[in-house]
């Protein structure tokens, strides 16, 4: 039987709808408008596209959107001063510094200078620690989106075998923490993993976050497993031009899996939706209000 296609685009539209409802309620009941500030340093074309689309969607859900575009040569002290200013701005509830930063800037220092309560990317070391110890935190957007889709599809994930391929700080590791938090038995695979095919074949849930186009073939997938494809890779088409593919070979995996996310239209749209969800969560927490249910873990 063909796999159920998990429609991330439609799911993300639902999440944005929920966010918009909460934003409207915060305005009407408390006179508060959640605000998101995005800081972009330099002219990386992909980053410019992401920042533009984040700003557009922030406004669409009724939030305040602020963009700070800085020259590629911006001094670290000036960037830190801007972050300090945003940390203390009561109208800003979420701060996102678009990565990667130009090489002369210390990414860890910059991220860890963001107020953890406003760190809507969830990369601050305090949020990493809170997530790792099962406490309320800001959860990185891409893994949060993956978890939302998995919960929606399966209900409970308790007792399932999950394999996360990739151990980056922004996807693989937090994804594994979230699955562990939902009582999966979690394996994290990486470039040194022996017999990756055998490891993946044991999984009820496979999350691929590698950055290698179509690396996971269908014969690695346990029949009926759920496949979440985080990868975004651009490859050449035989007839010319390019197209986006994930880290799994979609056709062969979809023939075996029980459910699968497509690329594009799977995990990607959920990432921005979760950024907006995190901003509402941060705004609620900053104002002593309960975080909206269903928009965080
Ligand atoms: P990184 O490059 O930071 O990490 C890749 C991971 O894959 C590493 O842990 C690496 O292992 C592992 N890896 C590399 N080669 C292999 C291999 N042959 N077998 C097993 N593991 C391997 O990437 P990111 O986590 O930042 O991103 C992963 C993918 O997800 C990319 O395609 C990226 O574009 C995409 N992405 C998509 C997002 C979305 O919104 N949909 C958001 C963020 C990322 P090791 O540690 O041993 O080197």
From TrEMBL:
Transmembrane segments: none annotated. Keywords: Amino-acid biosynthesis, Histidine biosynthesis, Hydrolase, Methionine biosynthesis, Multifunctional enzyme, NADP, One-carbon metabolism, Oxidoreductase, Purine biosynthesis. InterPro entries: Aminoacid_DH-like_N_sf, NAD(P)-bd_dom_sf, THF_DH/CycHdrlase, THF_DH/CycHdrlase_cat_dom, THF_DH/CycHdrlase_CS, THF_DH/CycHdrlase_NAD-bd_dom. One of its GO terms (molecular function) is methenyltetrahydrofolate cyclohydrolase activity. Residues 6-121 form the Tetrahydrofolate dehydrogenase/cyclohydrolase catalytic domain. Its EC number is 1.5.1.5, 3.5.4.9. NADP(+) binds at residues 166-168, 232. It holds the Pfam family THF_DHG_CYH. It comes from the Bacteria. PROSITE patterns: THF_DHG_CYH_1, THF_DHG_CYH_2. This is Bifunctional protein FolD. It comes from Pseudosulfitobacter koreensis. The lineage of its organism: Bacteria, Pseudomonadati, Pseudomonadota, Alphaproteobacteria, Rhodobacterales. The gene is folD.
